[in-house]
Amino acid sequence: MPTRQPHPTRSPFAGAAGHAQATAAAPAAGLPRPADAPAPADARAAAGAPALGGTRVLAAPTGGCPAGRMRPPPGRRARRTVGAVAFLILGLALGLPAAATAATTAATTGNAAAAAPGTTTDPAKAAAGYLARQLVDGTHYVFDFDGTTPDFGLTADGVFGMAAARSSGTALTAATGWLAANAAGYIDPTGAFGGPFPGSYAKLALVAEVTGRDPHAFGGVDLVGKLAALECPASGRADCAAGETGLFKNTTTDGGFPNIVTQALAVLALSRSDIPADHPDAAAVDFLVGQQCSNGGFPSLLPEPGAACVSDVDGTAFAVQALVAAGRDTPAGTALDWLESVRQADGSFVGNNAPNSNSTAVAVQALLAGDRDAAASISWLRSRQVGCTGPPAQRGAVTYTGQYDGNALRATTQATAALAAAPLTTLTAAGAEAGALVLACAATPTPTPTATATVTPTAEPTSSAGAPIPTVTPTGNGAPPPPGLAETNAVNGSAVGLLAALGAGLVVAGAGALVLVRRRA
Asked: What's the domain count of the chain?
C-alpha cells in the first residue's frame, strides 16, 4: 500500500500527532485578594469591628491635671517620660527581629497554600486555563497559517486536555458544542475534500464519550454507526485490498488517509462505548496488531508493501492505548517495553528527531494506560511549562522544546492530559470546575522606608521556560501532581541581620537615656 500524506486542513492526524503549529495570545489576569484575607483597617472600622488584636486607643485627657491629683515634681516627670521612651525603644528593638522572622516565614509559605480565588498552583489546571484563553471566540482553535481556518483536530485535543485537568469547564463545554455544531466540516460527509474521514468520526466519538454526550447523536450524526460502516470487510468492497480487512477507510483514492493513529482512535472510541454491540470486532483490532514492528513498536503511517517497519513514539503511544482498551494486553505490553527502551535519561521522548513535549505527552498517556512508571517524563514536561517568571499571557503553557513559540498551543493540548496523569482509556470531563484558572504567582513585596532589606525570590532551579523543576508521582485522572509552579518571595538573610543590628542600636540608645536621667535626678 503506498504511503499516504495528510490533507493540510482536513486530516484528523493533524491534531493528533502535533506536528503543525498554532498559537494565540492570552490576556494577562490579575490576582484578586483572597476571600479570607483580613479586610483593610477602614473597612473593619466601618463594620464596627474592633481594632486588630481587640484593643482600643483611648484619647488623652485635655485641660491639665484633674482636680484632686498632684502634679509630680519635674525630675520625676522626666524620669517617667524617658523611662517610658526607653521601654518603648526596648520593646521595638526586641520586636523587630521577631517581626522580620515572621515576615520571612509568611513569605516563604505563601505559595501553594494560599492561592487566591481564580488561581491555581496545579500545573495541569494552569495549562487548562491557558488552553481556554486561546480559544477563538471562546469556542475553537484555528490553523496559524492564515489565522482563520478552523482546526478541528486541535480543538478536540484541547477538549481532552481541559477534561483531563477537570478544569476550564465552561470553555470545555463551549468547544464541545462547537465541534458538535460543525461536525460536518471535520467529517466532510460529501467527499468535497476526500472525506468522509474515519479519523474524524473516531475522534469526535471520543470527544462525545469523554464529555458524556451520545456518540450516536453528536451534532445529529451517528458517529459510531458511520465509523463502523467504513471498516473493510473480508470481501465485498473493491476498494479494500488484500490484507486490509479490519482497516477503517473510505472509498476514495487515498481512503480518507488511514494511518496507525486513526486506526487506534477508531478501536479506542469503539471500545469505550457503553454499548457492547459498538465494540470493535476482532478484525479491526487484528489489523492494528498486524502493524506492529518486530521490535515491539508501531509506525505512525501505514508502510508501503515490502518497506521496513520503523517504530515511532507517537504511533506506538496511540496503538498502546487502543490495545489496552480492547483488552489486548500481550501486544500492548510488548509495545510498552519498546517505549520504555527509547525513553531518554531525562524522561523525554524523541519525535521529529528531537525530544519534544507532544511525543513525550502521548508516551506518558500510554505508559499510564499500561500501568508503567511515567514520573520522570511528567517531570520533564513540567520543566517545559511556562511559570511565574514568564509573561502572564504565556503562563501555564507547555513549550514544544523549551522556548515559547508558535508550537506552544499544540504542545499544551496534549501535555495537559499528561500533566493530569490521564490516559485516553479512562479520560472523563465529569466534575470539571467551570473557571479557567491562572497560575498563582507571589507578588514581590515593597520594601518599607525604615528598612533597606533586599527582597529577592527564593532560589529554585528553573527551566528556560521559567517553571521550577519538581518531582512528580502520577496519581491518575483528575488527581493533580504536587504544586510546584508558583514561586515565592522572602526577606533574605542580610535583611534580617540589618534589622537585628538596628534593634541592638535602639537597645543601647534606651540604656543611655536611662543613665542620663538618673544623673540629672
From this structure: 2
